[in-house]
Amino acid sequence: MKKRYVVLLLLLGLIIWQAPLLKQGGPAALFHKAESLFDPGAETRAAIVIDAQTGKELYAKNADLPYPAASMSKMMTEYLLLEAVANKQVRMTDSVTVSRNAAEAGGATVELKAGRAYPLQDLYAAMVVGSANNAAVAIGEHLAGSTQEFAKRMNKKAEELGLQNALFVNATGLAYSYGENHMSARDASKLAQRLLKDFPEILSLTSQSSVVLKSTGEKVENTNAMLGTDKPSMQVGGMDGLKTGFTDQAGYCFTGTAKQGDRRVISVVMGTPTEEQRFTATKKLMDRGFKKS
Hints:
The protein is an alpha+beta fold. 42% of the residues lie in helices and 19% in strands.
């Protein structure tokens, strides 16, 4: 008898605890309460995860606020290059002479010498896999003649793609006295979605842990530490891209993508204080994204 009273008291307590939520919508209210408690990390400035096919938002945090985008900006440089190749305006076999301006780019770089010519394919691989800034500048100059003209093309394409809070001033995402590229997390997810839709072949590079540049023999490591990681906090099945970023102003950023079964998701993390946190936050977002329909 005493045991029965204990059980009844526990049931009564549960009913009382749930009563306010049940009045506000029953079980659905409980679900939405759990949803509101999810956060990929308090240290994350902005984040979003979407279904890559439909574009449906699966989670968002400060997703429409523009922040420094750092090297995630290179997704636009990649898009414009692949578009130019598709339109037969340039070829990956083109020989590109590197300017002094490109050769002296700071941050992440590969071995490029001013005045020397390199295959466009190598510059592309160095940018996609190693986030090489000197390669990105050389590509922008090859396509448009100058950094300034290439930035105009970037902004024009951003408008065409519906990136409402994006502003580009260079091909790299580096911060200079004249400004820094900005995007919202939603902008970055839209750009990634179009990049993968229009040029899925980019995944053949973004999925590689490293590449060797044929013209120089240099081995370039992928900046995406989630590829082949043995850390459970960073492991996501089907991870195959896409673009990291970092500047002092932007913090650590990452636009990631993964495919499980016939479903692909895209996530964006902006402004974490450490390199690892951008990847652990990405795992949380992707786990969330794959669970939601």
